[in-house]
Amino acid sequence: MNRRARRRVFMGDASIGEAGTNRGIGVVASTRASGIWRILTGILLIVVALFHLYLVVVAHVGGTLGVLFVLQSIAALVLAVALFVTRGVLRRIVLVLSLLFLLGSLAALLLALTVGFFGITEVWTFTLVPATVVVEAIGIVVAAIATAVMLRRRAA
After folding, report:
1. Residues near 122 by Cβ (< 8 Å), separated by ≥ 6?
2. Where are the transmembrane segments (predicted)?
């Protein structure tokens, strides 16, 4: 699709889509939807990073867990920034990595709450544990939708 046709598609001209087809509205909706879900994923990654930094700085979580929380915060911030600055295939890779990161983060917390994770145990009453579970679960759903929309848009 050339630049002029792309501009018409983004301006909402339903009569002209890719290669003269009648798919203009679908392209616009898909592009906007993938952008919105991607931005929400980035925001939730930033919130997860801030939760973990808060636990290290304010709640004074130290030792191995503190180091892991700092590393997790850095990784979440790097993924969030990458979601905003990358394009094309690299953006798809970052989106899938963000989904895997959130899945791993929630899985580690749930393991620590139940049977322990690398010798680390956690309780539901500790600072931000319930909020972290909720935010990470929402992040997983949002990242999964963002990934599905972006991959579907690529297949179309």
Report:
1. 109, 112, 113, 129
2. 39-59, 65-86, 93-120, 126-151
